[in-house]
From TrEMBL:
This is Methionine--tRNA ligase. InterPro entries: Anticodon_Met, Met-tRNA_ligase_1, Met-tRNA_synth, Methionyl/Leucyl_tRNA_Synth, MetRS_core, MetRS_Zn, Rossmann-like_a/b/a_fold, tRNAsynth_Ia_anticodon-bd. It comes from Glycomyces rhizosphaerae. The gene is metG. Monomer. Is required not only for elongation of protein synthesis but also for the initiation of all mRNA translation through initiator tRNA(fMet) aminoacylation.
Amino acid sequence: MTHVLTALAWPYANGPRHIGHVAGFGVPADVFARYMRMRGHDVLMVSGTDEHGTPILVQADSEGLTAAEAAAKYNRIIVEDLDALGLSYDLFTRTTTGNHYKTVQELFSTLYGNGYILQKKTLGAISPSTGRTLPDRYIEGTCPHCGFDSARGDQCDNCGRQLDPTDLIDPKSRINGETPKFVEEDHFFLDLPAFADALNVWLDTRTGWRTNVLRFTKNLLDEMHPRPISRDLDWGVPIPLEGWIDRPDKRLYVWFDAVIGYLSATIEWARRSGDPEAWKRWWQDPEAVSYYFMGKDNIVFHSEIWPAMLLGANGEGAGGGEPGPLGKLNLPTEVVSSEFLTMEGKQFSSSRRVVIYVRDFLERYSPDALRYYICSAGPENQDSDFTWAEFLRRNNDELVAGWGNLVNRSIAMAAKNFGAVPEPGELEEVDRELLGATRAAFDTVGDLIGQNKVRAGIGEAMKAVAAANKYLADTAPWKMKEDPKRQGTVLYTVLQAVSDLKTIMSPFLPHSSQRVHELLGGEGVFAPMPRIEEVDELDAGEGATDGPYPILTGDYSDVPKWESVPLAPGTVLEKPVPVFTKLEPSIVDEEIERLNS
Ligand SMILES: [Zn+2]
């Protein structure tokens, strides 16, 4: 048994999330975590909403809310959506907790103490008319990279690049249109060049990474510069240094605090579990492994910056040093990055309304219909395009006509003719072949999930489904009324295959696997689901949220093993209700119209 940290990118809490987000990392990471638990590993799946930084403030302004109110609003929506999709987080929390603030400041202090945080003079913007600091988000100008004319002082919403206010062409104050004055100010920088050698050595030990991630990261290491980690901002984690901690206009940069969330969420989980030291099993045990899941726009933070921060906190950069109070921390085992999901040929964009929100999707379709699409056609190794026509085809022709039909036909026939799982007679060659094929699928599918090849994994599972459907067509048990013994053997064989396949399908399609388990007469929880819990803040004081907040958590300790379990003849079977719903072709036009309206 290994301790497996499954770390998912933190959704940004400035609006509801669309299906592109959950396609990139949410569902693939959940497939991995569910499988690893079934293999007997001690999995901890953590994340939360990323709630600091400019876009939250901009969204809050536009809704007449405070930043804290806006973050709380979207945190709750995102928690509910991820729950509905069945993502089995051990803890999904948020970055506006006292525990997170404390962990971030502790890591900052360790990095600072080890000499990896530089204080440098940079140009900061002030308003000429008031003489006050002008926060980054209130400066607007043309992006030097893509020419977008409404880029903000810290980020371009068009090309996604991080910016400094001085990068903007023709900067203007969004408050009164005046041109800001730039004056020298102190800011903090992470000394990335001090980690170039250590990162290179570490990267050379990585195996099994997707080539795009490895190539991208190696290119990054060729050109490293100190990276700013503080901003002119009034919303974020205060800088824990004398002369800085009380300044309301200086905060740590949102990305700096967000990546520390993986660690702080594990600590929060341990504290809530009643064993506050338990987090160390995933972060300090040298045998523990950690898998980070994200979209490709976030690779840099997970393959370069976060490992650099961990090296620095361990005292393992060029400047040496000592581990801080959190001890020596594990670097990522693997950074699993996905590509982008486009929609009907366009980039997802909330502002241009090219978007399908998770919530809207799940109001009309089942979570497993979405999970099936993502698993079989998601942006695993290349950008992929979501189209409603393809969703309809995969749902009707593959999920309903393939897996759903196998479940329905085999259980219905056995229920009608025997009222139970029949007692098998002697197996013939063709029966043994089918059972051998489904048993072999445990190895092939499992190996693929273990390598985060979800598309190939579900493809192999569907091949085993096709083999079972072919077996039914070839043996035609409905024609065996005169030979109930052989009919019972054939139906027993196919039911055993269905039982094995519900196990193999459960990391991908947990909701329907639970249903198949029940249709086969099984009791209790087969594919455990997360639950939303309202919890109280653990720490009063700075960063503490007001009142209870929702987390996602769950008890996944009792998962079935990743293996074939013999069905018990005589188990009572009822006429099944179909597990999946066939969709009308008219949904394609309806959905496209909805998108364009
Ligand atoms: Zn740009």
